[in-house]
Amino acid sequence: MKTGNGKTGRPIGFDKDAALEAAMLLFWERGYEGTSIADLTQVMGLNPSSIYAAFGDKQALFSNVVKRYVETRAQYAADALSEPTLPKVIRALFNNTVAFLAGSGHPPTCMTLAGSAGCSPDAAPAKDIMTEMRRQNDQAMKKRFLLARKAGELPKDLNIEDFTRFISATLAGLSIQAANGATKAELKRTSQMALKFLGY
Predict the structure, then answer these.
(1) Residues of the chain below pLDDT 50
(2) pTM of the model as a whole
(3) Percent helix, strand and coil across the chain, each rounded to 5?
(4) Bridge partners, residue 124, by sequence
């Protein structure tokens, strides 16, 4: 089997989901630039030729990893936005975020913040992927908040874009605190304080 770099790799006979999961956790922990192909070969159990054959180069692999993250780990926010009333939406956004950050089996932060932090210009494509993901998350919240305002759950004169940025920034702050070592109990208290100030 010929790979993109002209090398011959062994046929794909491995668990691609397991390999992607391992790569995702490594990118999540170390960031895009902090993760080398050598590191990936170790955690994925594949040689470089097999990685290139199955997933493409490092950038392509990162794109696959991000897709997996969205589909398997980041659904907690979408679940919150599907709640029937705005108070339930806001509470679920904070409660689900705390539960996610304090969960086991992954680094204690959001991959959208950690995956491309501090990238150099050479890694701009990876940074752009993460930025776009965060923008999409904000757009999903904005859409739900607009529905809430239409239903009379938010004041008509409230700037929805500002409200969305405020909620997004506060949730991102929980992720930063988790990365700093905050416990689940501490994150929960911080979340409850935010909800109290918001009136929910």
Answers:
(1) 1-11
(2) 0.85
(3) 70, 0, 30
(4) none
